[in-house]
Structures are given as structure tokens and as C-alpha cells.
Amino acid sequence: MRLTPFTPHTRFYSMPQKVFITSLGCPKNLTDAEVMAGRLTAAGFELTADESEADIALINTCAFLNSAIKESEAEIKRFSSLKEHGKLSKIAVTGCLVEREKNLLLKKFPQIDAVVGINALDRITSALNGDTNYILPATLPLAAPKFKTRLTAPHTAYLKIADGCDNRCSYCAIPMIRGGYRSKPIADVVVEAGNLAGSGAREISLIAQDTTSYGMDLYGKPMLHELLKELARIPDIKWLRLLYIYPDKLSSDLLKLMRDEEKICNYLDMPLQHISDDILKKMNRRSTEKSIKAKIAAIRKLIPDMALRTNFIVGFPGETEKDFTKLLKFVSGTGFDNLGVFTYSREAGTPAAKLPDQVPETLKTARMNELIAAQSRIIDGINTGLIGKTVKVLMDSGSFGRTCRDAPDIDGTVEVITNAISHKPKAIGKKTRKAYGLKPMANGSAGSSPAPKAGDFMDVKITGATGYLRRGTTI
């Protein structure tokens, strides 16, 4: 949904060119694609979800890891082939790969017609019209986009509150790609959030490379606490979710606000990366084993039902068996609700790429699998504790939704069975009803509650679970 309408005096007399957008990588990249989509529709281009109908392909690339670069290049090759066969007129490449390779990308892939860097999103229409290519330095302050077209489901949205990063973790290429940390002013974020709510968003996930540093560059101190208080005043927003929280910057004031403000989900995405002090030091992380454990204890003391998601990197240069065993024990004993595990990727230009004692790929993979297995056992225990409990679920479709403990796209889901009016008496058989804990229907009645739809909030009793897929029935 476009959040800003066409300028009143704009007129188009020819058939609009159709643009197919594919956005790779993280939600931060997706928000950039939404800004470009808004610019394109405002300029008279037409978006299409069917690439076979497209005149133009816009590939918004990721280049955070070597695997992401390969995926991005594979997409460029695929669309280049379509153009060679006359199925596309133009190809535009945007995003992080543009920042890593600059104009070399045009030499590598001559079928590309335009490249646009992440700091020049407002130039996308000029680039497609053949004026030039735009790669600008990350020096301009961020502001609420003038145009934005939603590429997520109507009821859920991402809101990027800052870009870039100043933390300089030794393994990370983000500062090279996106530059230093830059926050959007509070007033601009509130306007953008209001527009998202006006377009139907009931859940907004706040994102940045380091959300807890929000406002430092503009106001001289962290301002996430103040921003959240402003956003909570927007009536139509029901859930506010925090992603990418740095543990050493998570304040008690912020935790207290999360506890007291019902709109802020008791959910923290807090990438820890490791627990061994030796590895954390090599990673150039500020946290230590002691500070991480103390922070988790403080979180759970203040908000006992806080859902914790984290990420870990295994196979970092110099990671010994002792380091990994400590990490494995930490995961087994902490009980994270959601966990991502990555093998270390040696990224050119990062300090870690030059470190000695690089770990063999086979050992990295073995350690990753062992950590995932440990987390699977944790999830089995969490699932056992969920059986019989009633939770609030935001429906993503008529059959599946999420609790406030599950972020969109990355965490678990809840399959919901309901006695809805739209169900015919035979739609839910006896075996299915028994599996979901439903009582037999009297006289073949189809029930009386309305069928759920995407964006509805439902009270659901959990009746079963397998891994990150839970099942339940409406109350």
C-alpha cells in the first residue's frame, strides 16, 4: 500500500512500465526496497508480483556474507538471462552488493542497466530513466521517506530507525557497506509509524544494526526509551517489537518501560555471538561472559516471561574445543526461546579475516549442528510448558499466526483451529478434532465464532507443538 499519494499535477498518458522487485537479505534491506517501491509508483511505474509480466527487474541485493553475495549474483545472472531472451527491457541492481563492488558490478554483469547504492534510494527513478548511476557516501542524515510502498502483509511492518554501525565487530562488513551509525529524528520516526498504522499495520518491528544506540548521534545519549513512549501513543499500533538489541546497552529504564507498557512485546532479539571471553575479545565485542549472564538474570528478574532470541557464531578463528564446549553448555542451560546459529564467514576487508587459526569448514559445520541439536532439546521443554496455556495470537492468515514471543519471518508460528461459521460440519473430522483437543460438535453444528483473518488477534489455547510450530484452538 502506498503511504503517500501521487502529486496532484502528475499525469501519465502511456502504459506504465511494470517493475518486479526481489529483495534479498534482512528486514533492513526490505525497508529500503519499500522506499524504492514508493518512489517508483509515485513516478508512474507499476509494481507486479509476477516476474513474467515485468518490463523491469529490480534486484535489491545482500552482501553481508560470502553466501549472500553468491545468492545476489545468482539472481543477477538469472535476470540477465531473461533480458538476453527478450523477456525484460531493463535490470536495476541496488543494495549492499552495489556498495561492496561499486561500478565494478557493471563490468562484471554488462546486462545491468542501472546501479543504485543504499544512500541514493531517492534516485531510483532517475537511474531507470537512463540518466546515470547513483552511489553516494553515507553522510546524509536519515529522515522519514517521502514515499513508501508496503511489501509486507498489511497487518505487520518493519520500521528502520537507524542505519549503519559504529561498533566495529571484527567479523562484520556492515560499517564498510552502510557506513557509520545514523539515526532518524524522533519526529520523523513517529510520522512514519503513524503512516504505517494508517495503512493497516498493527504490529511494528523496530530495526537498526544496533537498536539500543538509537539517538546517540543526534541527541548525545540513547533515546530508544523516549522513542518507544511516543510510538506507544499511536492508537492503532497494538504491538511494538525490538530487534537487534546490544546487551551492554540495554538499560534498566528500557526494561521497566517494556514491563509497564503493554504495547511493547516482552521480546528481545539480542545477538550475543559467543560466550567465551577469548572469542568475544577477538570479535571486538564489548560484552563478557560475566556481563552477559548478569544481563540475562536482570532481564528475567524484572520480566520473568521475557522471550529471548539470540544468534551465535561458531568456528570463529581460534575457537578451541574448550571455547565451544562453554558455548554449548551456556545454550543448554539458558533456555533461549529462539536461536540462530551461523558458521563464521571470512569476509574480505574485515580484521577477523586476517586472524590466524582459521577453523576448518567441516569442524564449523559439526559445531553448528551440535548447537542446533542442543537448542532443539530446549524447545521440546518449552513446548511441554506451553500445553494447556492460553496465548494471544496475531493471525498472519486464516490458519496461522504468531504470539508476541515470535517475530515475523524468523521465529515460530501457531496453527489455529477454530469453530468458525465458514467451516462446514465435515470440514474438521473426528481425528483432527481429537488431535487439537476440540470437543465433539453437538448435532453436527459448525460453530458460531467468525472465521479469523490476517490481522485479527485471537485467544488460543495451545494443544500441541512440534519444534517451532505450535498448534491450538480458539477460546
Structure description:
Among the domains are: 13-138, 3-Layer(aba) Sandwich (Rossmann fold), CATH 3.40.50.12160; 390-474, OB fold (Dihydrolipoamide Acetyltransferase, E2P) (Beta Barrel). 33% of the residues lie in helices and 19% in strands. It has 475 residues and is an alpha/beta fold. The strands form four sheets. The chain has a six-stranded parallel β-sheet. A five-stranded parallel β-sheet has the order 2-1-3-4-5, sandwiched between helices. It has helices at residues 27-42, 66-84, 96-101, 104-108, 124-128, 174-178, 186-198, 216-219, 224-231, 252-260, 277-282, 289-302, 321-334, 361-386, 430-435; strands spanning 18-23, 46-47, 56-61, 90-95, 114-116, 156-160, 162-163, 182-183, 203-207, 239-242, 264-269, 307-314, 338-343, 390-395, 400-402, 413-417, 457-466, 469-474. The chain has 15 helices and 18 strands. Mean pLDDT is 90; it is low at 1-13, 421-428 and 438-447. The longest helix has 26 residues, at 361-386.
- How would you sum up the global shape? globular
Number of strands: 18
Q: Give the low-confidence spans.
A: 1-13, 421-428, 438-447
The assembly state of the depicted protein chains is: single chain
Rg over CA atoms, rounded to whole Å, is 24 Å
Based on the coordinates given, report the CATH architecture of the domain at 13-138.
3-Layer(aba) Sandwich
> CATH H-level name of the domain at 13-138... which superfamily?
Methylthiotransferase, N-terminal domain
CATH level 3 topology of the domain at 13-138: Rossmann fold
Q: Please identify the structural class as seen in this structure.
A: alpha/beta
Main sheet strand line-up: 6-9-10-11-12-13
Give the helix proportion (percent range): 25-40%
What is the overall number of helices?
15
User: CA-to-CA gap between the ends?
Assistant: 32 Å
Regarding CATH, which class of the domain at 13-138? Answer: Alpha Beta
What does the largest sheet look like? 6 strands, parallel
Mean pLDDT: 90
- How much of the sequence lies in strands comes to 15-25%
